[in-house]
Design a protein that fits this description.
Layout (H helix, E strand, L loop, with lengths): L2 E4 L7 E3 L9 E3 L5 E6 L3 E9 L6 E6 L2 E7 L3 E9 L7 E7 L11 E9 L3 E2 L7 E6 L28 H9 L2 E6 L31 H6 L14 E5 L2 H6 L5 E2 L6 E2 L11 H21 L4 E6 L7 H15 L4 E5 L16 H22 L6
Helix pairs in contact: 1-6, 4-5
Length: about 375
């Protein structure tokens, strides 16, 4: 017989992604956030409440590790079946993923999980021995991983949390992971020179980049408790949009009237003062990440969508290491997108993400082997 369970009444439910401690309901903010459960029974459904102003969120779910569902969510509160008609006594692993990133231009874009409906029993979810955090832009948000190559519409349908390099890396390493990413954003500014699009400004809060009173009420602007979840490795993949800012017109802050622009010299090289400002931002962010994650190894990655700022990122990373004597920091070049690995929206496609995941897995595996830490093929 089906029984309804509020999220707060399911202690064996595993929550994924950075969120608040509130479970009435559980709010999903970030890409790949959601829940996981081990259950017996013949069917399982989830009660969601969905809101947005412009772009509808998408979700995916897996059963026993296999991707069996992906769909657009409409506004309202309703039930979504996750499986039905399965063998009652067998224990099934079910994971629910938010496919769409946190929306910095939509303070009403949320998925809330209220309850689960099940005719079986909940069982504990085994804790992973390895934890990974991925910080990035549209690449890490999974933009361009669905849709034909010629697609250029910026819509949630073309985002995926299960086909990106973060998910692929975590799966191969048998790791738990979280994603902290925003399309178009960078270390110092967004792709269009907008200095408000700097991801480091929001790293210490749960999800402060979403605007409005609703986010405040939901706890998105509250300080994140880093002690509640400490990653073993923090993978940063930022700099692509900072490189784009050098090619774009100036951005004018309507509130202050100030103009912002990353400049190039007449010979095409980067203006010294601007590239130094970018490098300082990289070092400052490394310091923030280290303060929040004192035992993690930090890997700064770059290269899936061009290598324009690689030398500057490397210089900043190595300067940070020399200045702080922090040896648990390194740089890793990822495979660049080409004609055979491009996806939609001129972004890296699934093949490129697979290549990046292979490189990351090998690199992290080597680091783990040196430390004598757990690693699984």
């Amino acid at each position: 017989m089906l029984k309804e369970y509020l999220v707060k009444d399911i202690p064996k439910l595993k929550i994924h992604g950075r969120t608040t401690t509130c479970r009435e309901p559980l709010t999903l903010f970030w890409t790949a956030s959601g829940f996981e459960c081990n259950v017996s029974g013949t069917e399982l459904s989830v009660e969601v409440e969905v809101s947005y102003d412009t772009f509808e969120p998408w979700i995916s779910y897996t059963v026993n590790g296999d991707w069996v569902g992906r769909q657009m969510l409409v506004k309202g509160r309703y039930w979504i079946p996750l499986f039905r008609g399965m063998s009652p006594d067998k224990i099934k692993n079910v994971r629910f993923y938010k496919d769409l990133q946190a929306m910095s231009d939509d303070g009403n874009s949320y998925i809330h999980i209220h309850a689960l409906r099940l005719d079986g029993t909940f069982y504990p979810v085994e804790e992973k021995k390895l934890k990974l955090e991925f910080i990035g832009d549209s690449i890490t948000s999974g933009e361009g991983l669905f849709g034909a190559r010629e697609e250029e519409d910026w819509i949630p349908m073309f985002f995926s949390s299960l086909r990106d390099y973060a998910c692929l890396t975590a799966k191969k390493l048998d790791a738990e992971y979280r994603v902290f990413s925003q399309s178009g954003w960078g270390v110092l500014s967004a792709w269009d020179n907008n200095v408000n699009g700097a991801l480091p400004k929001h790293y210490r809060e749960i999800c402060s980049l979403q605007p409005g009173e609703k986010n405040e009420r939901l706890g998105g602007n509250a300080a994140h408790d880093f002690t509640s979840w400490q990653p073993d490795y923090v993978i940063v993949n930022l700099g692509t949009n900072d490189a784009s800012a050098f090619e774009q017109p100036e951005w004018i802050d309507e509130k202050t009237g100030r103009h912002y622009k990353m400049h190039k010299n007449s010979d095409g090289s980067y203006l010294k003062e601007d590239i130094e400002a970018f490098q300082t931002a990289v070092k400052d962010f490394l310091g923030i990440i280290r303060a929040c994650n004192p035992k993690a190894h930090i890997i700064w990655c770059y290269g899936m969508l061009g290598l324009n700022l690689q030398m500057s990122i490397c210089r900043a990373v190595f300067e940070y290491i020399d200045e702080t004597e922090d040896r648990a920091v390194s740089y890793l070049q990822l495979p660049n997108m080409n004609e055979s690995t491009v996806g939609s929206r001129s972004h890296p496609g699934y093949l490129c993400h697979m290549q990046a995941a292979e490189v990351l897995c090998q690199y992290i595996g080597d680091l783990i082997a040196k430390k004598g830490r757990f690693y699984s093929d």
